[in-house]
Amino acid sequence: MGRLKGAVALVTGGTRGAGRGIAVQLGAAGATVYVTGRTTRESRSPMNRPETIEETAELVTAAGGTGIPVRVDHSDRAQVQALVERIRAEQDGRLDVLVNDIWGGDPLTEWDKPFWEHDLDNGLRMLRQAVETHIVTSWYAAPLMVARRRGLIVEVTDGLPDSGYRGSLFYDLVKSAVIRLAAAQAEDLRPYGVAAVALTPGFLRSEAVLDHFGVTEENWRDAIAKDPHFAHSETPAYIGRAVVALAGDPDIMARTGQALATWGLAKEYGFTDVDGTQPDWGSYFQEVVLAGLTPRPDGG
């Protein structure tokens, strides 16, 4: 897994979930990974979750890389600028991978109601947290890649362009905008040999999702009785391995501007989830969920 030895990555929103999974897998591939977020051992973000950027950085180092935690609120331009200047100084201007995974919108999303009944302040806050922060971070970080004429920007989203309406106007707008953000960045970056893609996981077994079902990663299958769809879920390591595969692809420019998914990339690159399987949420969603079929109680 040392294919990215010497590479430098920045994983924003790396405190937990997909961000943590990506950071750790980049570390396993040998990269130096700057992990940003707002929750530290000294203070928590409004998400009020126990996971911290220090823990993620330690997991990166334990996996074989070098983890560097930096507390950053990516809605604060000065903090983002300081972060990028720190990377420039410490890594001799090198930044190979930027992962924009800032989100924090789950507690703000209101489901099963028309948009005019959704709290407007929370909806607009979602746009600022999960779109504006990505733009701000890329604006400061992209010049490091442009100067070296190489690099990869990954915009983490939920779903693909043909996924249909996501059940809430603000949630739908955020996730669709992030996909378009990758495509737009790709056009501007293409002449400089820098790629940008959008990437979605499937049904992600994040820390919050495991807590929701009252299980841990060790006994996660116990939750299938509550939700048979959960049988087709995946760990955060799966999307992490997808990012590693993309970052190590010498022909990555052939993919720039695309919206990609873990299940498709797993088949193309041959990586697996931690249990050796290749969860295919996309096929399951099309063939069972959208088809209105009733899954078996065991998740089959």
From TrEMBL:
Kinase as UniProt keyword: no
InterPro entries assigned to the protein according to its UniProt record, in alphabetical order: NAD(P)-bd_dom_sf, SDR_fam
Keyword Oxidoreductase: yes
Enzyme Commission code: 1.1.1.100
GO molecular function: 3-oxoacyl-[acyl-carrier-protein] reductase (NADPH) activity
Keywords recorded for this protein, A-Z: Oxidoreductase
Domain of life: Bacteria
Classification via Gene3D superfamilies: NAD(P)-binding Rossmann-like Domain
Protein name: 3-oxoacyl-(Acyl-carrier protein) reductase
Pfam families linked: adh_short (PF00106)
